Amino acid sequence: MTDTTTTSTTTVAAAAAGGGAAPPPPPPPPATSSPVQVAEICLDLLLAETERHFMHRDVQNANTSSSDDAKHLQAIGYRVGYALVERCSRGKPRPTDKLDAVKFVCKDFWSAAFGKNVDHLRTNHRGVFVLQDTSFRNLRHVPQHANNDVANERLQIPTGMLQGALAALGVPPTSVEVECNSPPDVTFTVKIGVAP
Amino acid sequence: MSARGASNAPRGSQLPAQEKVSNELFTLTYGAMVRQLLHDFETVEEVNAELDAMGARIGSRLVDDFLANAQGVRCADFKSAADSVARVGFRSLLGVTARVGAWSETSDAGSGPSACSIYFEENPITDFVELPRGLEELSYCNVLCGVIRGALEQIGMHVTVVVVKDMLKGADGNELRLTLKEHAAETYPFKDDD
């Protein structure tokens, strides 16, 4: 019993010494996989409640239009997207151009934020990118023939997240438009560095 | 059989694996929402009240899902309900462990204790959070109070929940105090011919 413990300790120590002598010390445990996970329904309900709060308050108050409310939701999304990119891009090379940044968003960011990768990415190589997700997580509870407003409401925060993510990667978009004809299939059109 | 994905498992046959999301995304979303509330409301008290109200609406919807998924959870009286919230709810929904304690003295025979505390050290909504100066009054975790209150209200228990200890404010742990106000017993059998 004691023998095994000693040997294993020495091997660990030797490995640690070897690692320290050669290149940089071994990286800390990956920061992206947080040990604590919450049930998805908590996030769903939080998002639903946030949308309810910011979209449907002050109905009697005439000077808040629905586009103002959408802006509030986008502002929330922007902060989430910005901070999330900072976390999931840690230790990875910084994207060098627009396309690189958008690709990063389609893979790493999308899976951190929406649980999967973007299904299709198209670009005209002049700053217009079309991202299609055929089963967007935030719309999975929206019925296929729902009123367009319902899906639209649920897409305000993700739109903001996409803006924030790209801004954090150094390529703030000039516009992000979202289109959803049959949930949960959704298409984001991102314009970077071109007139909206 | 055992390799079958949770999504294919027939609903209700056994405890299905809950879909999980990373805590980072959840924390950041909550934090951004609180910031927007602070921006919108004039006083911190209003924000605290709104967080509690939002929590209550979340709780009232969460309880259905919770009871449907977590089989064998007992919520017949306040004691078992509080126990389920702490030991099953916190673990399965927030992924952290919590415990119950500090039961109040039983007031009269048969009714059981009417107050208790829920303790937890790890709080998934306060990761990366630090209260800036000037916001000492903000009760960042008020949403949890609301959720518990809203959830128990759906099963006929009117409780008040307050934050007693908050690690964001330098305490050595988090403590929520639950006090039962009224337990509206369900009446059986329901009259069909009304």
TrEMBL record, chain A:
GO terms for biological process: endoplasmic reticulum to Golgi vesicle-mediated transport. Residues 1-16 have a biased composition (Low complexity). Residues 1-35 are annotated as: Disordered. Residues 22-32 have a biased composition (Pro residues). InterPro entries: NO_sig/Golgi_transp_ligand-bd, TRAPP_component, TRAPPC6/Trs33. CDD domains: TRAPPC6A_Trs33. GO terms for cellular component: cis-Golgi network; trans-Golgi network; TRAPP complex. Pfam families: TRAPP (PF04051). Belongs to the TRAPP small subunits family. BET3 subfamily. This is Trafficking protein particle complex subunit.
UniProtKB/TrEMBL annotation, chain B:
GO terms for biological process: Golgi vesicle transport. Gene3D superfamilies: Trafficking protein particle complex subunit 3. GO terms for cellular component: endoplasmic reticulum; Golgi apparatus; TRAPP complex. CDD domains: TRAPPC3_bet3. Pfam families: TRAPP. Its main location: endoplasmic reticulum. It is found in: Endoplasmic reticulum; Golgi apparatus, cis-Golgi network. It comes from the Eukaryota. Keywords: Endoplasmic reticulum, ER-Golgi transport, Golgi apparatus, Transport. PANTHER family: TRAFFICKING PROTEIN PARTICLE COMPLEX SUBUNIT 3. Belongs to the TRAPP small subunits family. BET3 subfamily. Homodimer. May play a role in vesicular transport from endoplasmic reticulum to Golgi. This is Trafficking protein particle complex subunit.
